[in-house]
Amino acid sequence: MLERYSIQPPQDQRARINQAYRMDELTIISELLDKAALDNRQLAAIRDQATSLVEQVRAGRKKSTGIDSFLTEYSLSSDEGIALMCLAEALLRVPDNETIDSLIKDKLTSADWQAHRGQSDSFFVNATTWALMLTGKVLTPERADGVLSKALFKLINRSGESVVRKAVDKAMRIMSKQFVTGRTIQEALSRAKKKEAKGYRYSYDMLGEAALTAVDAERYFVAYQKAIEAIGRSVDPKSNVYQRPGISIKLSALHPRYQEAHRARVLEELSPKLLQLAQLAKKYDIAMTIDAEESERLELSLDVIERVFRDDSLHGWHGFGMAVQSYQKRGFYLLDWIADLARSKQRRIMVRLIKGAYWDSEIKKTQMQGLSEYPVFTRKAFTDVSFQACAKKLLTMTDAIYPQFATHNAYSVAMILNLVGNYRDFEFQCLHGMGNELYEQIVPANRLGIPCRIYAPVGSHEDLLPYLVRRLLENGANSSFVNRIVDEKAPISSLVEDPVSKANHLLSKINQNIPLPASIFLPERKNSRGFDFTNREEVADLQQQYMAMDLSRWQAKPLLAGREGGEVDRSVTSPQNFAHPIGRVSQATLEDVDWALNQAQLGFSRWSQTVVSERTALIERFAELLEENRAELLALTCFEAGKTWTDGVAEIREAIDFCRYYCMLAENQMAKPKRLHGYTGELNELSLHPRGVIACISPWNFPLAIFTGQVIAALVTGNCVVAKPAEQTSIVATFAVQLMHKAGIPTQVVQLLPGTGETVGAALVADQRVKGVIFTGSTQTAALINQTLATRGGEIIPLIAETGGQNAMIVDSSALLEQVTVDAMTSAFGSAGQRCSALRVLFVQEEVYPRMLELIKGAMAELKIGDPQWLSTDVGPVIDAEALSGLRAHVQTMQQEHEIIYQCKLSEECNNGYFMPPTAIAINNMSALKKEVFGPVLHVIKYKRKDLDDVIKQINSTGYGLTLGIHSRINETVEYIRKRAHAGNCYVNRNMIGAVVGLQPFGGEGLSGTGPKAGGPHYLLRLCHERTYTVDTTAAGGNASLMSIPEGY
């Protein structure tokens, strides 16, 4: 399982690197503090030189172009700074004027530009502020001062939207130019000459993010080739590799699946391409540096780098380089591996030591994935310590490494200068447009004459956007040195602090600013634990566990109190391989149903009287058992339900989250009555009480998570449960109930009845001993259950039904289409499209429709469909033959009148399973869809901006109301859609699946369900009786509490 080969854990230096991946922060920073320490004489000298540098920078900034001042004035702590970042991120890629106008108005009119007027010493900043303030008033004349002003601005507004648009577009392009060296490599080379004459060097970065398609990857490859040729032809033949300009390469731009799960494919396809580029760089003897990526890609990058660097064709070339992120916990240990690699081939490697550019996303991803620790440091001071420790180590490795210190921090520069003394075989590095005043004190021959290489982005303004946002986030934040060094209000003493001393004072506060992922929901509850499939040691250990397991003899059967149940069992096979038996299922009989209901009634009295804290303790223990048995549960969900590994982990985590969240709710809502305050002399309380026996009928698409959520909600409220799982996934349910019993939940309190809906489900719903029904499944079945409950006689009981959805995503022309592509692929084809929340219809504004189709086709071509037991699989099987037949029939019908945009190809391994190729179909209107299509089929509709109301009407007219996705950078558009569309869960600028318990309570309206939302604060109430208790406290002789109020109180 996992891989087709035996996974080997990292060895030697790679093992040490991996140990530091998510090492606890106190341990690793304590070690680095020792490595980074300097003596008092050094510290004093560094502080003096850093102070001098800051003073010179502040004096020189008034003569600058003003970009540093601009970032200071419009920091990300202000609404204006955020508005500018949002505008810069989106404006230059929007193709149509109407959307541009809306975007400008949305971002500029909500900010208080007047507050910044005249606040800066920079003419550039003040001039920009006046322009933005005027623009904001033009777009919102009601905010202008005075009658004449209002009249004038209304006149301009009527006639001048194009003027405003052109002005703002020009302003954004001017600002973008501060970050981009040139639109083409030729333009960049030409622009660089002026600074090169001063002693600066360049490393050119061909702008572009991770490739999503093979076409994009090839385009980036050709761009790198041409850039190397152009740079190579421009060099001074008398210079050496260190003096010459070089190029920076982003590996994820060269391969559309640059992920650990696709390691084998990446090594086979990407390594030759990177070698080609390296050979070309060697031909011209220029440097080629591999840029740093997100932390989960480091091991893969090292594999590719080692394979290419060891190639004999590169013998004698000292221009191969790589970036090392000191904000990663692995940075310090990575240097040893690099030095060993260099020495093994007797060639130096250039090492660009940086702090890191993905910090915020690293933190959020780790929290969302529930991993043990962060891969990066959580405090800036700790990153500074790591940078200093790495710098010291690098300078002991100069036989193997050419050091390149990338920083805009005056203290870091002073620290490096102190460490190197008279040694000069190194360089500084900075970003184009940043740190100009700082390095003017370092680079010129009449200063220190130490070179600084400028990291110089090259490309169109459209390609700049993601890079620009990263730079604004890094340098516009209040904690940024670039921001603070030009902020006169920041005392110089705070900018020249020793990071070691500062970090020592923070050791007792680790994770107080940013809690560990396990603690982010505390004190209410603990977060569920995820699994890191990019940690090869953990994956190798998991594979070893499976080698010791029997993965073909699982058994599902009725789990009854007091006796065995079931009839002749049947064999169960896997949906990905119907020739592979995985176990057997024994189905419940009608006698088993009757027995279970009787036992549940007998058990109700005691369980309902069990105090809430005892019930929650047993359920918390069950949650622990789910985590302890994660490996087997992952295998079960894979083989019985066709789940991929990431889907399996998410399923187990959701089940655990349900347990802990509902326990927390029950403690808050049921442990004691709620006192209702009113007039004096009376006690009023409201309390919640269990109803009785609850029937839980769960689906196959989330055989553990939804099953657990239903059962635990009923149990924690004091009800007894008789559960009927889906026929297709009875083994998962059996395993879960066995764990519940193992946790100490009595057998009378929770019983399992595997079987058909027609037999077991119908009998449960019709029986008056059942006091409530929780159901997840089709709308049609929910309607039948509702009808049965209404006609069976006896008391009226609650039905909680969560059903399907005809879910849409609306994409306007301000959206980032690459992000839309990733989110659409995940939402439409994740879990083989077998989610209630899955994306079924993608609405795309006509101006961006052609590019959107290109991206969809290219991204779909990269999907790996196959057996989900392999980590490389993106899309597994659908659940059974009936599901596959229905999906094929739908596509066959649709293609008679509609265009098939793209349909994935299936490999031979799919012949033995129920595999439906992901398919995208162009349609004109949602009315073409007569029912929910539950599988990997995406329908795409082109719409005009003026027809947005019709789009919303189409969505609402389906009668469903489950999930809705919106991709837009215009807040007004988002709010307009959100207020009018009928959807239980609305997701903006992200995917639209994977609702998190307690954060995104899940459930729809209309044909999509009854509510209340699963994983939400109101869910348990539906499973309880409410009882009011009123006592006249004056009846026993007067209102003592009223009479005893002291005078003057």
UniProtKB/TrEMBL annotation:
CC cofactor: FAD
Enzyme Commission number(s): 1.5.5.2, 1.2.1.88
Metabolic or biological pathway, per its Swiss-Prot or TrEMBL entry: Amino-acid degradation; L-proline degradation into L-glutamate; L-glutamate from L-proline: step 2/2; Amino-acid degradation; L-proline degradation into L-glutamate; L-glutamate from L-proline: step 1/2
Domain Proline dehydrogenase PutA: start-end pairs: 67-179
InterPro entries reported for this sequence: Ald_DH/histidinol_DH, Ald_DH_C, Ald_DH_CS_CYS, Ald_DH_N, Aldehyde_DH_dom, Bifunct_PutA, FAD-linked_oxidoreductase-like, PRODH
Entries under Gene3D superfamilies matching the protein: 3.20.20.220, Aldehyde Dehydrogenase, Chain A, domain 1, Aldehyde Dehydrogenase, Chain A, domain 2, Single Helix bin, Single helix bin
Reactions performed catalytically: L-glutamate 5-semialdehyde + NAD(+) + H2O = L-glutamate + NADH + 2 H(+); L-proline + a quinone = (S)-1-pyrroline-5-carboxylate + a quinol + H(+)
Domain Proline dehydrogenase: start-end pairs: 188-484
Domain Aldehyde dehydrogenase: 571-1025
Gene Ontology CC terms: cytoplasmic side of plasma membrane
Top-rank EC class of the record's enzyme: oxidoreductase
A GO term, aspect molecular function: DNA-binding transcription factor activity
Active site: 802, 836
Keywords: DNA-binding, FAD, Flavoprotein, Multifunctional enzyme, NAD, Oxidoreductase, Proline metabolism, Repressor, Transcription, Transcription regulation
Location of the Proline utilization A proline dehydrogenase N-terminal domain: 14-58
Domain of life: Bacteria
Biological-process GO terms, alphabetical: L-proline catabolic process to L-glutamate
Family as reported in the entry's similarity comment: In the C-terminal section; belongs to the aldehyde dehydrogenase family.
Function: Oxidizes proline to glutamate for use as a carbon and nitrogen source.
UniProt name for this protein: Bifunctional protein PutA
Lineage: Bacteria, Pseudomonadati, Pseudomonadota, Gammaproteobacteria, Legionellales
